[in-house]
Design brief:
Length: 182
Amino acid sequence: MSKAYPPSPYSSPLGKHNAESHTLSVLVDNEPGVLARVVGLFSARSFNIESLTVAEVAHETHLSRITIATSGTPEVIEQVRHQLERLVPVHSVTDLTLAARAIERELAMVKVRGKGDARVEALQLAEAFRAKVIDATTESFIFEITGAPRKIDDFVDLMRPVGLVEVSRTGIAAISRGPEPI
C-alpha cells in the first residue's frame, strides 16, 4: 500500500489561474554538465520548460546564454529565478518578461503538402506572413518563418487545413532593448 502525499503546490490546480509565461535569460559558464544542472533544477521541482535555447555568446570568456521559456505563478517564477542564481556556474539570471523592452523571436521551418489550389493558398499565406520558401517540390514546400512565437503559432494553425506535414522550431531567442547588457 502506497503512502498518500499531499499534492505539490506546483502541480495543484489551485493557484494555476494566475500562471504567467516568462522568458528567463541565464548567463552561464560554457562547460560540460551546466545545461544538465539547469534542466535538472526544473525537473526536480516539476517546473515545465516550454522552450530552451543555448549558445555560446562570449568565446573569450567561455560564457553561454540559456534562454528558457516557462510558466507559473509569479511566486513560482521568482523561486525558480532564485534557485537558478544559486547554481555555481550561473553568472546572472534575468527575467526578460519583466523588462518592458525585451524582444523575443523564434525561427521555424514548416513543411506543407499540396497541389493545385492548396499550393496557391499556401504560397499566399506564406507571403502574408513574410515566410520564405527554402525548398520546393511538385508536391510540397518548406517555409522558413521568423518572428514572435505567437506569429509562428498563427502561421502553423493556418497551414493545418492547407496540408501541414511537420514543423521544426528553434525555441525562443530573447534580448532586452537598449544599450545595457543583461
